[in-house]
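Hello again,

I reread your note about wanting to compare the complex against the isolated chains. To keep things tidy I'm splitting this into two emails, and this first one only covers the full assembly. Below are the input lines as submitted, including protein chains and any nucleic acid or small-molecule components. They are followed by the predicted structure of everything together. The single-chain runs will come separately.
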Amino acid sequence: MAEYNVIGTSLAKVDAPERVTGKATYGADLDLPGMLWAKLVRSPHAHARIKQIDTSRAKALPGVKAVITAHDLPSLPKGATAPLVGEVSIDMSAIREIVMASDKARYHGQVVAAVAATDPFIAEEAAGLVDVDYEPLPVVEDVLQAMQPDAPLVHEDLHTLEEATQEKSDQPSNIATHMVYARGDVEAGFAAADAVVEKTYTTQMVHQGYLEPQACAARVEPNGRVTLWTSAQGHFTIRTQLVTLLGLPASQLKVVPMEIGGGFGGKALALFEPTAIVLAQKTSRPVKLVVSREEVLRATGPGAPAVITVKAGATQAGKITALTTTMRYDAGAFPGSPVARGLLVGLAPYKLDNMLAEGFDVLTNKPRVQAYRAPGGTPAAFAVEALMDALAAEIDVDPLAFRQKNAAEEGDTLPLGMPLNRIGLTQMLKQIETHPCWTSPLEGPQRGRGLALGYWIGGSFTSSAEVKINPDATASIFVGTVDLTGTRTTISQMVADELQLDPQDITITVGDTDSAPFADLSGGSRITYTMSAAAHQASQDVLTQLKERAAEKLKVSIAEVEYQAKRFWAKNDTRNEVSLAELARESVAWGSGPIIGKGSTTRMQPAHAYAAHVADVEVDPDTGKVTILRYTCFQDVGKAINPTQVEGQIQGGAVQGIGWALNEEYIFDNGELKNASLLDYRCPVALDLPMIETVLTEVPASEGPYGLRGVGEVPIVPPGAALANAIYRATGARLYELPMNPERIFWATRGNGANGSHETNGSGGA
Amino acid sequence: MDAFEYAAPQNLQDAVALLAEASGEARPLAGGTDLIAQMKENRRSPSLVVDVKKIPELNVLSYAAGLRIGAAVSCTQIAGFAPVRVHYPALAEACALIGSYQIQNRAALGGNFCNAAPSADAVPPAIAYGAMLVIAGPNGQREMPAEDFFVGPGQTVLEKGEVLVEIGLPPPPPHSGAAYLRFIPREEMDIAVAGVGAFVRLSPDAHTCEQARIVLAAVAPTPVRAKEAEAFLTGRALDETTLAQAGELASQAASPISDVRGSAAYRLELVKVLTRRTLGTALERARGEAA
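Full-complex prediction:
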């Protein structure tokens, strides 16, 4: 393996100075001359027919420049789609309804109209003057109720798609898709088991919790082109969606990515940008749209909840003989829950010869869910990993040993059919065996230790990079990928090592859709992974071009040119040399031409990421409150390009998972969110958390120049079950519903669980 | 948020006159940590906001024959005032757990009273210490016990034109101690699911309880005294059993609702636990066993 100087070091984030000094420009910071402010009008009903919208009072308010409804958006054929990433496409007719409802409001807070005015206060007042005549309809809020044949229909014309046959059901339904993956013989498998455990687990809707509310601004330029500034996590993706939604050719749109204040998957879709553009077109003035925190929580699209049944059997020796699962994911008001990902993530850590995995994508009168860090993974792993803990306890096998006996390996087939390339699950589990977080005694009453695994497939898709040599022998990198996680820094580290430059000699720019090379959106733990190949390729391209010029100067063939430490020389005569500085200087002089390297990748194999978390908790028996005493994250990262950033990603993901596990939840009343503020939507604060320890395993991924794996998503997957399993050992009570907030634990430990599922069996205690 | 007038009078008379003569709703502004959020969320739309931070009487903070706290004094100032830390630790505790450091730097004790949230953290310890309030109005000043100030959620006895000027706490008697505990699912930045302030005064031999005050937060429309529990403790030796019995009795004084922060049934259980624990700390302090 090559030696690196910059890769593998914890270089400070290249964007840190502007971030911490408040100089970074976010979408909400935009202030354009003549700018108008937009405000959205939202449905106060979770389900209602829109009979009429009267905008006359709003239009009459001085300072109001435009009021639009769904009629002002270009019409779109039902089922019109746009590509999102790879083979995944989005139903843009559904997105149009989320942008602005036409016939029905299908969730509380769905946008029905928008205004643009000369200041934000007039815009807010005008929004209140838009008169909408609603006919309220029965609300279906619960995923299990929504699946009943007599449930109110979210869409009267939606029929269940049977994924295997691609046939649609005769009757309309709230089940958008039904999928089944099977292998082996589960009946025979269960018959061969010494113990079988079956349980049902429930999770609630949660929010991604990004700090920055969505913001965008649109301006129609004198030549008719539209410039759009956006907080989205992929500006090329937004352009692609707008092409379909607004019927604008891609060449008529310039999308400029702003510095982003967190996305976690929740800023991938063009939900606000079309409104800003249409208002800008109508008024011939720039229009800015910034949503409030309350709107963010109510209606921008949270993470999906699920009700998951898992049944598994094992032999006394601890070998899993069969597993079945039914995962019902709540998509909210339009199809597209991450149920397939749930099936994959939940089952991917295990060798399963006999398996039946069934998934339902279910509609309710709740906001349409969006991606949230390892979409679908956290509910699935909560269910499967808690069930595995119960099964291991049933046959009296240590929870770690149980995982080791059943751990997936290279060559095994994933539940949805794909064979696993090189993975480090076995090596990672081995590290836990001897780690103090697992071996140290945990003394004291009401204390317990829990273990759970996690998986994420790791995204691929298209990424590109350009690397230019500047006249002062430094390099500039140009990319089209929004930096969510520190990717500008890690890409710079790669290019620095490839060109043997100091990191301070590298600059990196995220360009707009007119100037930067195309890239898919930032998400899926794909940027550092795919950019490693693109940046490597672009750097090699630069070196090749430089060597060509050096060869000409040195009067040798390219093959004879050596490069090190900013010097090129002839292999057979080290005194025959030319400096990088000289070639760089000449590249901008007449007759030589600039050095521009290009790299692009579009179809890398997945770099599978596995994680295991070990949690120690103490539960206050009088109040049910959990204190996390110690929390350790093990993860196969392939290769840590920047160990501090990898650690930060793991800690951040674990914290979000801990919040989901212990306190975060959407609380609805007839479809209306009752806790639409960060006061009552309880994300963990710093005092709620211990130091999150990280232990990195580095088993190189099968593809890519450095063997790295994407690290961002998998750490949110294990916390639910790691904490549930720890709480069980602390209290003797198993919890089957997230969040495991103090009140739920209080009643569960008194044999009074929400679904009466309190277990008294105390085997397997730590 | 609707448009509103803003005034920042330099003296009490002007403030009273402005509030009394306002045509629509007028609200005094101290730290603004409740009022500004309510206005932004359109939960309150006063036509006049009277900033009271420039009025000398509302900025008093002194300890001589008891403690005097001007209504506009911030939680940070109170929690950091040495006599408060020494003589009124329960009040210092409460002021140091409202919101966050940033909130405490702005939020005033008078605001905690006048906002009249049932969950107000600084109110139960103040009542437990026997606080008296000074109120100024168009007809002069009046005084009243703090526990009589509250009418319902967000509602106080203040008449139009009246301003809360000062919160006064009597000097703590010998062999007394107090404490405040609240329960939140997180460690900070949260609103009490339930809170309990307790004060006990012991006999000189530190054996018998001569007086007790127990004040409950977030479990009734206003902060409430648990008088049955107080009466039960008076004259008794305090031990784990009597404290637990007091907790049971205290829960009978609570009439909680179920909301997003917790169910009524859970809140009643919390009152029992918090009463027992708060009394335990108050007892240790009365005996000089804890700070």
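For quick reference: The interface with chain B takes residues 121, 124, 294, 622-623, 625, 662-663, 667, 674-675, 679-680, 682, 684-685, 687-688, 741-743, 746-747 of chain A (CB under 8 Å).

B.
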